[in-house]
Amino acid sequence: MKLDARIPDGPLTEKWERHRFEMKLVNPANKRKHRVIVVGTGLAGGSAAATMGELGYEVDAFFFHDSSRRAHSIAAQGGINAAKNYQHDGDSVFRLFYDTIKGGDFRSREANVYRLAEVSNEIIDQAVAQGVPFAREYGGLLDNRSFGGAQVSRTFYARGQTGQQLLLGVYQALERQVQAGRVRTHSMHEMLDVIVVDGRARGIVTRNLDNGEIRSWTADAVVLGTGGYSNVFYLSTNAMKCNVTAAWRAHRRGAGFANPCFTQIHPTAIPESDEYQSKLTLMSESLRNDGRIWVPKKKGDQRSPDEIPEAERDYFLERMYPAFGNLVPRDLASRRAKEMCDSGHGVGPTRRGVYLDFTDPIERLGRDAIEERYGNLFQIYERITDENPYRLPMRIYPAPHYTMGGLWVDYNLMSTLPGLHVIGEANFSDHGANRLGASALMQGLADGYFVLPLTIGDYIARHEFGDIPDDHPDVRRTEDEVRDRVAKLVGLDGSRTVDSIHRELGRLLWEKCGMSRNAGGLKEALDRIPELREEFWNNAKVVGSDRDINEGLEKAGRVADFFDLGELMCRDALAREESCGGHLREEHQTPEGEAQRDDERFTHVTVWEYTGPDSEAREHRESLSFTEVAPSQRSYK
Amino acid sequence: MKVTLHVWRQESSEAEGRFETYAANDVSPDMSFLELLDVVNEGLIESDVEPIAFEHDCREGICGSCGVVIDGSPHGPHEGTATCQLHMRSFADGDELWIEPWRARSFPIKKDLVVDRGALDRIIEAGGYISINTGAAPDANAIPIPKDDVDAALDAATCIGCGACVAVCPNASAMLFTSAKVAHLNMLPQGQPERWSRVARMVEQMEAEGFGNCTNHGACQIACPKEISIDFIAWLNRDYLRAQRKVG
Ligand SMILES: Cc1cc2nc3c(=O)[nH]c(=O)nc-3n(C[C@H](O)[C@H](O)[C@H](O)COP(=O)(O)OP(=O)(O)OC[C@H]3O[C@@H](n4cnc5c(N)ncnc54)[C@H](O)[C@@H]3O)c2cc1C
Ligand code: FES
Q1: What's the pTM?
Q2: Would you say the CB of residue B35 lies under 6 angstroms from ligand 2?
Q3: How many domains does chain A have?
């Protein structure tokens, strides 16, 4: 496997412009002769499909929801960043670039991140022109807020529904292309494999989730915008259907998987309440702008929080990080909360929770002001927990939330499998070892609206594409393999439900490869996962047929891939003998408990090559160089 | 707590449906309603019975996937709540619950509690967008828009496309859904150039899909998990009338 990031020459600030000039173009009249398959209609896939339709390509868009509007992107609450500097507070493209590189703890590619910051402004223009109702000030101009501890206000938002409104903009643009006949949408179609012909990705195999039909689709190029894999942990803030199958199947066909162990744990989710819990609900990061996080000083204190006097509370983030207090980055806030609970200070019925208290801000600003800022979040909280956060502090606990790792891509967003492009959360992308708040939406839309539709043209213009007949041996073989696999899954006739095994895998990964990792734990997990996989293939149970809607069967296929991914995550975490961003190796910490990078040995992206079901993945490295921002030790003290 | 569920089971759109009864004995009040269905399904799988098919994804009331009729009410007993946001503490120990899919001519049942809502996408396809291509937009602050106007547009745009409004309507009308999108776009300056054709085409498509007429029953705004107001229907009607004159 050869890793060529294909970063254009020239000064950082001119690379993208120069590249746009140097890329080959497809003649407008010829575009309609080129078919592109897009898998996923979240912010990334949906915007790419719509834009390529506008440009004149023939686009087929596949997704496993019943409508393209339901992709997981819909759930994003907080907002989207852009370097508009509308607030005149000193923001700029360079500052957004700088913050993102630093936030990613110097494990991302400068050229990509700079381009991301550059196109961020166009995203906002595009969304507003589509009718996305971002929040405005009384003068009628767009409002911004500071998010996730950023020193400038660059986050655009639409109440707590930013993802929904942006996705509806994408969905509408997509439906417009459907109406125009340029995009065909295929709902309830799950992609189960990539068809590779002569070393290039030329199609996919799908299963129709309504009637079980398995069929092949061919095209000149394939784009995956299939989202992240946080659900490997079973419980996460992601929607129930999020999974790694599309990316994993592509990995098995030759796409390198980059930094799989880079996962982000979000500090403010509602804690798990019982064993039936099916997912975790995120409470927006913005709550930390005003809320104060604390635990009782006394271990195992069972009193109601309002009976615990001020002197007996430990506002641990304010104590440890006087400068940043409750606004320290996500990974620090998460880890410190977990440590508090591990050492016996946790609160709530499961003792896995810390308080997020609004008493002070309510006294200072009045209940109305707090209601105006967080009313809908308080409502969500009350609905789920049956507790009133105006009276009692919220209980929160960290939860898996986002995956920075994903399929490796070059500057053109193409994976190591030629023709297979990967966008949005599914690629390893621009966030290095840690993603800043409000920048996933930005990246998904940057990829989909502004980068991929151009770079894919370069790929198409540089290659010849003959027709691939339906009975082409590579098409037949791939389709047959999918059929065999589905038959095997539907035939599972053991005694355990798929969910129960998935839960076990999730708990194991959360313990050993979650918020903090150590060599011993990772090795234990690497011993245990193959046993769980065995348990799955020997003892899981799928009821019903493969000829109609069968969610159990769908889940089984996704969970089967999670075992392999989980294993690779542990292997990656073990190989990276340093801490950086969200990846904390307990062996590598500063005396303050901060991630201790080892730039000498690990200023690189780790990319794993699939070598077969019975052999270990092969490690490759893309080394990173920093010319504009000198790597520094992060410190929030 | 314990509850008894009478659940609509139907193998396919052609098959006849019927209620099947399941007892759930170990119900925690903190469980969500969909988690209850998960538990029932785990039990069914263990005893070799096909689990109940139902739609869901985000489980936080935003994706619009979920939606069943509980004791005659789409999304259950609470206002402003999607099925996935309902918790078992809303019910009493010993309750018997009747669970059905959305029932409307334009939403054929696919299996058990899952219906085909493709008609809603086709209404959007007919004109529920602003025709601008990527990259062609002016600066986002070029046109100031009064805060109140944007807030009102967002009130409409918050629709999650679940279809509860259709399910609850005695005429199975999709007026609340359609009007929410028409109002969202037609209230904003960006939406003006296509204002009249948009409303005309979307209403036409709604009728072509076989949705019924609106007779101002008002049940839709009560069933709507996002509490979208029927004022938007009045807004649509006004725009529609004016469009008839303009589009001819
Ligand atoms: C609760 C929550 C809140 C968040 N809030 C924010 C925020 O405020 N700001 C921010 O920037 N980011 C936020 N994020 C992160 C952000 O929402 C996601 O990273 C982003 O939306 C991912 O978009 P995507 O297009 O890459 O993938 P998704 O939106 O996940 O879309 C994936 C698509 O792929 C399809 N798909 C997947 N696999 C297959 C397959 N095998 N076959 C066919 N189709 C398939 C699905 O149908 C879907 O259409 C949040 C995340 C969560 C969980
Ligand atoms: S599951 Fe998404 S709205 Fe209920």
Answers
A1: 0.98
A2: no
A3: 2
